Amino acid sequence: MSELYTKWWGNFAVAQGEQRTLRCADLYLQLQFLPNQWLLGYEWQQDINQFQPVLETAFDDTAPAPENEQRFVFAELPSTLTLQPALADRPVVCRPVVSVSLLPFQEVTLFVCLPLWVKLKTGESEQTLLDIPTVSVCDSWFGPNTREGVISYASQVSEQLDVKPISNNKARAAIEVRIQNQSAQMLTLDKISVPAPNLSLYADGRGQFWTPRITLVRRDNEDAILSVDEVISGGLQESDLILVCHAREDIGRSKITKAISALFG
Amino acid sequence: MNEWLSKIDAGLIGSIAEAVIYFVVGLILARMTSRGVRQWSKHRFDTHQQLLMGRIAAYLVLLVFVVMGLNAIGFNLGVLIGAAGILSVAIGFASQTSASNIISGLFLVAERPFSVGDLIRVGTTTGEVLSIDLLSVKLRTFDNLFVRIPNETLIKSEVTTLTRFPIRRIDLAIGVAYKEDIKKVRKVLERVAQANPLCLDEPKPIFVFLGFGESSLDMQFSVWVKREKFIDLKNSIHEEIKEAFDAEGIEIPFPHRSLYTGSVTEPFPIRVITDAEQQ
Lengths: 265, 279
Prior knowledge:
Largest sheet of chain A: 8 strands, mixed
Number of domains of chain A: 2
Strand content of chain A: over 45%
Oligomer: heterodimer
Largest sheet of chain B: 5 strands, antiparallel
Distance between the termini of chain B: 105 Å
Shape of chain A: elongated
Number of strands of chain B: 8
Largest interface: A-B, 15 and 16 residues
Number of helices of chain B: 9
Strand content of chain B: 15-25%
Helix content of chain B: 40-55%
CATH architecture of the largest domain in chain B: Orthogonal Bundle
Helix content of chain A: under 10%
CATH class of the largest domain in chain B: Mainly Alpha
Strand order of the largest sheet of chain B: 4-3-2-1-5
Order of helices and strands of chain A: EEEEEEEEEEEEEEEEEEEEEEEEH
Number of helices of chain A: 1
Radius of gyration of chain A: 20 Å
Shape of chain B: elongated
CATH topology of the largest domain in chain B: Helix Hairpins
């Protein structure tokens, strides 16, 4: 017997002997609340892609142990746990299936899907016990050469730079990327680097995740400006949304000027 | 003896005591200054600069107190400096190696090919830099040995800094049997790289066909990895390639020789022994 939760994130009361499982995208997370310890197990199951995250309360001890296991011991067992969706801790490199070219002095809005991370916290100090991606992410390098650049994540989803709004995937966050080509040269987008650590995460009433819109401006000289806008992607009102997780590194209203090669591939 | 002892009056003992106090206070203050400077520079400079600044500050403080101590005993510093000049020539001749190491050390500090905490390879020694000192650089090797390399050696020889750039390339030498399809092998290798999360998606893996070897088709497959994960990927990717080759039926040959007895000779005679015959 298991009890299904449609709202899979937030604060939950836990009891000793209880076992919970979370399935979100490729992630299978198993939580066991044993006497004086919590046993957390997780693995990424490539064959199951759960678009609708599910948190179940189960008492089945016969479930197989996941690949990775971590044990946390407590003097006094916490009575609550927090599951918090978050965004990646490094920039995410998104690549369209076919490269997109933007003509001079044109503007385009693209919708990109970002993989979610899950943070597991407990206690009054909200100590983070686990901070893992919900998909099996691949490392990538984003920079003009092998000396200068940033270690990033490569997003494994193929149809990312799609102009049409993102489909109903509640295991990912949708972001609107506005790209302005203010130069007289054609801008070819083989890949773009989305600054996930600088973005906050919001959820709407349907359980879909959204981030603020970002704007990338390519100027006439050899640099580009990245700014995190004060509007939410998809034209949603902030008042209609719940702030799920603050940005890991808040850049506030400041704009980041970088070389073109540091923002566009 | 008595005459000599009579010269040591209370005043001289007092001066020596004063000098010793200066020296001890100097030592304590130098240590405190070094610690303070390192604490101050902790979030401003890297480990190497912190170490260097701490040392310079400590030596300066100690020098001031040593001079004060000598002054208290009644040493004429002018004479001492003059003597030091003559002495330095003599020391220079006597300690050419040390002087060379000191100068090499200065060049190392100025050129900064590596800093404290970096992984370097000098000759056959690979290790983490523990400190860059006046005469030598101290390393800790992976098998936890302490290695002292004179600065002069470092200046003269090739030094590879393994942790200079954030990403590294692993070159895998792969040989497959002559019967295998190279295009298929390439696709299998690319698939293995794509499936391994440690293998960087960008820069793309490189495939180079090296040529026709003695027993195999030789090729190089190079993948990029975050430098911290170098060993992890090196281990996992070899394993995964072997598994993928086994699954696809791709043969990894070992060196072998084909023996011919020449066109005019008969083939080698082969005798088949059955189980019943063996018994």
